[in-house]
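Consider this today:
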Amino acid sequence: MTPGHGSTVDGVLRRSARRTPARVAVEYGERSWTYEELDDAVSRAARLLLDQGLDRGDRVGAYGHNSDAYLIAFLACARAGLVHVPVNQNLTGDDLAYILGQSGSTLVLADPVLAGRLPEGVRTLPLRDSDDSLLTRLAVTDPYDGPEARSEDLVQLLYTSGTTALPKGAMMTHRALVHEYLSAITACDLSAGDRPVHSLPLYHSAQMHVFLLPYLAVGATNIILDAPDGDRLFDLIEQGRADSLFAPPTVWIGLANRPDFATRDLGGLRKAYYGASIMPVPVLERLRERLPKLAFYNCFGQSEIGPLATVLAPDEHKGRMDSCGRTVLFVDARVVDEDGKDVPDGTPGEIVYRSPQLCEGYWDKPEETEAAFRDGWFHSGDLAVRDAHGYFTIVDRVKDVINSGGVLVASRQVEDALYTHEGVAEVAVIGLPDERWIEAVTAVVVPRGEVTEAELLDHAREKLAHFKAPKRVLFVDELPRNASGKILKRQLRDRFS
């Protein structure tokens, strides 16, 4: 075995524990952990996992809600040389069985309230809230003192959201994630003095790998919440306990739509990060008007790159509110046509990446891996435009572009136009089969107050070229989305086709 060089996920925590052992690392509910205590808990949990008969390289499923135990379990897998498989806690039935089976997970760490959903015969170990859980057994378990993982070892299978097909497990190494952490720290201006709150699901790569682990790397004190509860978030901000928050656009929209958004004292919030899906420009403008001193960062990427690829910094928003920024420290990107050739600046094409942050491919899917990694570049499936200054703007997912009468229409532009109407709380634009238009531009709207289809159609026609304006507006109570806040347009197309 080659000597360890310390470029491991758990090594990030170990260095912080040696540098600032007494500083509080994590708060969850009534519990708090100093960096020294957290590092010791990770070593004991690593020993406990290996005592279950696991071997290095075995896959371990993680099926739980946000908690300190969930974080400890992930870092323990990293330290023990195991491969962590985070699973969306909302999955059930065949979807849940597929990921556990496809990954070959030999043990599942599960919250007791979720364990009953697991397929019959799956070995489980309670994460918390049980007398024999991982958390309660740490005190009677010796710390792990075996060989360190190597930087090139797999540490996690990050399953894609599966909005268009079955999920694929992106094979992430220690080296890839550590590179991504450094990219996140530099591009997002993360520092030990920040007071971040983490409320999005930790199974999702954005909350875990763009914020929680990088913040542990710099030595900040981190608050973990079960969910992005507006009351709790606003209380923490008013109390001065939280000044940094990441949330997808759907959560920011929900916070901005709260009746008390205009009256609560939110001036203590210094850094606001958004990502995971496209932020409607009108919503961003409304947030900036309410909180003019708040620094907004647009974070863009995907699971396969760890997931951060580009960032639009606060001082870069003026004149390019719809941009996702420039590439981060360890990412190189191009915009190409169907033949893989560069397109001129200002021309839409697929954004492709080359980076040490990239996954090694998809677990047990050689054909999908070969299709995604072509000519030495990873093909993202995102349609983007690059300008002469290196800023990227995501136009759409390649598969979400609407072919209306032979003309390609980007759903994002239509959505931004509709968000400027006060009667629109949320909107998703999709293409539905149509004999005349091939695909009819269709807006699926969650209304705010009383609004009619005719009003919204007229509003869109005032803002857009006639071929881009919706042909229909459908009203729904809510839009389907995954736990990271990404709207599932495939479900809308299936429902209304």
